[in-house]
Structure formats: structure tokens, C-alpha cells
Design a protein that fits this description.
single chain; alpha+beta; three-stranded antiparallel sheet; 11 helices; 16% strand
Length: 401
């Protein structure tokens, strides 16, 4: 048994990573142990804080963000404590973060003359300022992420404190905030590239190569981007508009217009993501582009023995009885007429009528049409008016065998 312990102790003292101060397997196990303890502490705090937040009735997305930040803080502290307990020097991180990534792909070596005059080979190391390291990548990511958070905060402040105070139209607010967002992100990307030591000349060469790929494989993406700019600035469709894409049977209210796609909220509260090029190239019925009013059409057929004047009176009575129907339009309502009934056809088995009535909100057209159908059915039953259905007589003729 003692031999086993001695072997384990000897193994833990072996060097695992060679640095100026070597790191043993025992130190690595101590570090892993502290990280495991930190993970359990973070999990305990997460459950405790979740119960506290539920009592305070905080929204779920706020809870998740706070818990995520708490988890990162605990794990960062745990890593620091783990290195301290394991007595591991921070040289390991410094070496990894500042190791030039270009050296991973550099295989050529240049001869360097030694003091004895003999040729020797040595790898050519670029100057410190031109090295691309993990640290620089991390700094570049932090800059872009920080600019993104700053953009969200600036948009929030402008929307609440400036744009709403001046009562600017919702779609105009959206355009202003989008321009600000993309401007800040562009500035952040340029600063990040400068931090990485990448010149704009190099980026021009890269984009020149990408243009070939755009011509072959990214046509749809570019088409959607250009269509997004058209939608944002030409404004055939605005935020809050009620649209219907006829060919694909999509109906809903526009909630967001992005560079690549547009988000439409359907009647069943499902978000439909539609490529912008589809809104530009295909027929789109914008029900609220000019105004929000809509004309409901209800078609009904009655039997040939019905009193057509009575049918007309019933349909008009039903329309005037519905609270959402516009009964007497004002001078401000251009092209809006009171409810009317049309005798549209002598059908094969019915006399066909159509009730037309304006409503103030096109989003309610399905509900209003359903209500009118119910009311017409009840009124027809009350006055004994029948709605026929097609009937066919089938005759069978025996055949001689």
C-alpha cells in the first residue's frame, strides 16, 4: 500500500508543462479541483438567485442575463484562486496569449551566420508590432462587443429620450436607429482591425477575392441586402403595416425590417421571417400603406323562391348591427361608402348576393367576416330564408349482358 502511495506521489511531482517554472501534474489536479468547486458554487448561487428572482417577479430574460454574468464572474474568480492555490505562474497564459499565430504556419528558416562563421538555421521572427496573437484577437473581440453594447444603449436612450419626445413616426425612428447602429458597428470593426494590425489594403484584397464568390454563390444574400436597403429607404412597407404575400399565403403585421430579412407577426402570434427579395420581386398586398381601413365582402346564396328585397334588407340590417362596421362615413374617409348589397349572379341552384361593408381596422377583417356570417345565418333562420346547396340526380340505366 505504501508503494502505491509513493508511486502516486512521485507521479504528481512529475513535470507536465515545461516553463521557466515547471508545472507538475499535482498542480494541475489542484487547479482542476478548485475549478470543479467553483462550478458547484456557481450552480448553488444560480438556484438560490433563481428563487429570489421569482419572488421579486423579474422577467425571465433579465434573470437569465444576470445569472449568466454571475456564472462568468464566479468562474473567473475560481480560475484566479485555482492558479493561486496550485502555485502556477501566470507565465502560461502570457505565453499562450502572446504567441504569434503566424509562426504556426511558418516553416521556412533563414540561415544565420554564427560567431564561428558556420551557417546555422534560425526561424525568422517578425517584429512585435506585426504579430497576430490570441491577445490581439481577444482585444478585437472586446472592442466589437463593447461597441455593440454601446450601440444598443445609444439606441435605447435616443428612442426614449429624443425620438419619442419629438413624436417621430415609428418607421422613421427605425431608419435613424439602424443607421446609427451600422455606423457604430463599422467604426468598431475598423478599430478592431487596426488593433489586429490588419491594414485596409489587405482588406481590399480580401474583398476583391470575395467578390468572385459573391458572383457565384452569394447572389441571394446580396439580393436580400439590396432589397433590405430598398425597403428601409423607399418605404413601400413600414414597421406596423399589415401585409399579405399572395403567392405564399402569408398574412400578418410587420414587426422588423432588417438588411437580409423582414419579420412578420402572423395572426397566431408566430413570427415569419421572409427574405427581403421576396417582398420586392413578388406581389405584396399592403393593407395599411394608405390607411388601415378594409372592405369586408360576404357572399351568400339563397333559394330561387326567396324574396330578394327581403334578403337585401336583412343583409343591410346585419351590417348596421355590427359595432365594427362603418355606417356613416365622414368627409375625411375618401372612397368609403355605407354598407351595400349587390345581386351578383343567378347561380345553378341559388341567387347569389354580396354584402360589402367597411371596417376601420383591416387586422379585424377575419373576425368581422365571421361575425357577419353568424348573424346572417340567424337572421335567415328567423325569416325562413333558405340557403340551398347543389343537388344532383343520378340515374342508373341497366345494360344488356
Amino acid at each position: 500500500m505504501n508503494d502505491l502511495f509513493e508511486q502516486i506521489e512521485e507521479f504528481l511531482k512529475k513535470t507536465a508543462i515545461r516553463l521557466e517554472k515547471d508545472v507538475t501534474y499535482g498542480q494541475i489536479l489542484k487547479l482542476i479541483g478548485v475549478l470543479v468547486i467553483s462550478f458547484f458554487v456557481a450552480e448553488f448561487l444560480r438556484r438560490w438567485l433563481r428563487k429570489l428572482f421569482n419572488r421579486l417577479r423579474l422577467q425571465d430574460h433579465i434573470q437569465n442575463r444576470i445569472l449568466a454574468i454571475m456564472f462568468l464572474i464566479v468562474m473567473v474568480i475560481g480560475i484566479g484562486v485555482g492558479f493561486n492555490v496550485a502555485n502556477i505562474s501566470s507565465e502560461l497564459f502570457d505565453t499562450i496569449f502572446h504567441y504569434p499565430l503566424t509562426d504556426l504556419f511558418q516553416t521556412t528558416k533563414t540561415p544565420v551566420e554564427s560567431d564561428t562563421g558556420e551557417g546555422a538555421t534560425d526561424t525568422k521572427v517578425p517584429e512585435e508590432g506585426g504579430k497576430l496573437t490570441i491577445a490581439k484577437l481577444f482585444y478585437g473581440f472586446v472592442i466589437i462587443f463593447g461597441i455593440f453594447i454601446l450601440s444598443k444603449y445609444v439606441q435605447f436612450i435616443l428612442r426614449r429620450q429624443v425620438l419619442q419626445a419629438f413624436q417621430i413616426e415609428r418607421h422613421t425612428q427605425f431608419i435613424i436607429l439602424r443607421v446609427i447602429h451600422f455606423s457604430l458597428i463599422t467604426i468598431g470593426v475598423l478599430i478592431s482591425l487596426s488593433t489586429l494590425g490588419i491594414s485596409l489594403t489587405s482588406m481590399a484584397l480580401i474583398f476583391g477575392g470575395l467578390s468572385i464568390g459573391i458572383g457565384f454563390g452569394l447572389q441571394n444574400v446580396v439580393s436580400n441586402l439590396i432589397s433590405g436597403l430598398i425597403l428601409i429607404f423607399e418605404r413601400p412597407i413600414k414597421i406596423g403595416d399589415l401585409v399579405e404575400i399572395i403567392d405564399v399565403n402569408i398574412f400578418g403585421r410587420v414587426t422588423s425590417i432588417n438588411l437580409r430579412s423582414t419579420v412578420i407577426m402572423a395572426l397566431d402570434e408566430k413570427e415569419i421571417i421572409v427574405p427581403n427579395s421576396q417582398l420586392i420581386t413578388e406581389p405584396v398586398h399592403n393593407l395599411t400603406h394608405y390607411n388601415a381601413r378594409f372592405r369586408v365582402r360576404v357572399q351568400v346564396g339563397v333559394s330561387y323562391g326567396s324574396d330578394v328585397q327581403r334578403v337585401k334588407e336583412i343583409l343591410l340590417e346585419v351590417a348596421h348591427a355590427h359595432p365594427e362596421v362603418i355606417k356613416e362615413p365622414t368627409s375625411e374617409m375618401e372612397f368609403v361608402a355605407p354598407p351595400l348589397v349587390r345581386f351578383i349572379n343567378f347561380g345553378e341552384s341559388s341567387l347569389d348576393f354580396e354584402l360589402l361593408a367597411w371596417i376601420p381596422d383591416s387586422f379585424m377583417r377575419f373576425d368581422v367576416a365571421s361575425d357577419l356570417h353568424f348573424m346572417i345565418w340567424d337572421k335567415f333562420k328567423e325569416y325562413g330564408i333558405k340557403i340551398p346547396f347543389p343537388q344532383r340526380d343520378v340515374h342508373f340505366f341497366p345494360t344488356e349482358n
